[in-house]
Write the structure tokens for this entry.
Amino acid sequence: AAGVIQSPRHLIKEKRETATLKCYPIPRHDTVYWYQQGPGQDPQFLISFYEKMQSDKGSIPDRFSAQQFSDYHSELNMSSLELGDSALYFCASSYSPGQGTNYGYTFGSGTRLTVV
Amino acid sequence: DQQVKQNSPSLSVQEGRISILNCDYTNSMFDYFLWYKKYPAEGPTFLISISSIKDKNEDGRFTVFLNKSAKHLSLHIVPSQPGDSAVYFCAATLAGTASKLTFGTGTRLQVTL
């Protein structure tokens, strides 16, 4: 079965550079979520999109932006990178509406971003 | 403000015995709960979920119990296997909408031979 695809798997950037992370959801999933997991921490919600519109926003820095495209893939753009942005970035997708199910809430394998 | 907490950062269990992972939440609006298993450098893998209208859900070796009045849920793994060694996260959300998950802090389970 197709899963959530994230690219790249690993990314090394220097401070103040920009980075773009991509997420391809499971076919027919209409909602994409981005999470950030720092070392030894639980995943923190950043932002989500439903039908190409931002549906929810969490603790996402102003330096970050994201969008969902017509083919439902999403990109997380990160500018003016800081050392503290080094983390695992997960994308998840789901379908809606769902009743009493996990909505097929599936995570990708993540992108490990290292800022040096 | 940690709305979902897993108070045991680690747990060691012998192979074949029961593993019990606990999770507490503070937000009474949460009405759908999920458990994920995570290996290093990989995405969380869904294990089992439970709606607040139930107090138990079972899937093979995994059973989740929910005590709404105590705002507490637990994951039981019986029998535990070495391949179960991983970090386990509980997560909470609002049912009926495709909404964000709020994760607990994780419990590292080590199943020993």
User: Anything to note?
Assistant: Chain A touches chain B through 35 residues (CB under 8 Å).
